[in-house]
Amino acid sequence: MDLFNPEIERNILPYDGTAFYHGTVLKAAEAQYYFEKLIQDDNFKNDEVIIFGKRIVTKRKVAWYGDTNYRYTYSNTTKQAHLWSPELLALKKIVENNSGTAFNSCLLNLYHDGDEGMTWHSDNESPLGKNPIIASLSLGAARKFSFKHKTTKATVSILLDPGSLLLMKDETQTHWAHQLPKSKKVRQPRINLTFRTIIG
Question: Sheet holding 176-180: strands in order across?
Fold first, then answer.
């Protein structure tokens, strides 16, 4: 199923989870302003993951922020949070107002172009607790984003426009994997901000 450019908030998952696409929550000028500010962030570093015991340095860069210096472990690597910048605090407030949820941390991903993506995975690490709520704010290039059910293998795809918000909650991370597929057509960078809550 493909749901490109939905105009109203809806749950794009047919069952076993909730993924609300809110559409654009930032005006075009606002989205561009925050993109230009964040892409200059010196805290962006190449991500490192360990897959089958092998350490891999990704082209994608990440930055981790929070209310305090939280430690967050995924793919067998641990990151320590930087404190919020003024721009991130402003975006956090916008996301919280639109989602009705408070967050204490944010993982930023910088994809330089369509040659960089993210393979199938779920955000189900123990520090996030059971059935975490994760808000994904997109800036920069529009990119396709896909879900795949872990049992039925059903897929759902959506185009995430700059300034748009996707909220994943309930049992989504238990039953669905998601990915950012690569695309030769995308030549521009994208920043994805995933707001989340670290438990404990």
Answer: 118-121, 176-180, 143-149, 155-160
Q: Give 89-113 pLDDT, tens digit per residue.
A: 999 999 999 999 999 999 999 999 9
Residues in the chain: 200
- Cα–Cα distance, 148 to 154 (Å, whole number): 6
pLDDT at site 76: 65
pLDDT for position 180? 98
Alpha helices in 12-169 (DSSP H): 28-38, 86-99
User: Residue 139 and residue 30: Cα distance in Å, rounded?
Assistant: 10
Q: Nearest 5°: phi and psi at 39?
A: -70, -15
Contact 196, 134 (CB under 8 A): yes
- What is the pTM (predicted TM-score) of this model? 0.89
Dump pLDDT digits (tens) for 34-73. 999 999 999 999 877 777 777 788 889 999 999 998 877 7
Contact 61, 44 (CB under 8 A): yes
Q: Give the dihedral sign, CA 127/132/135/150.
A: positive
- In this structure, what token pair is assigned to residue 56? 């891999």
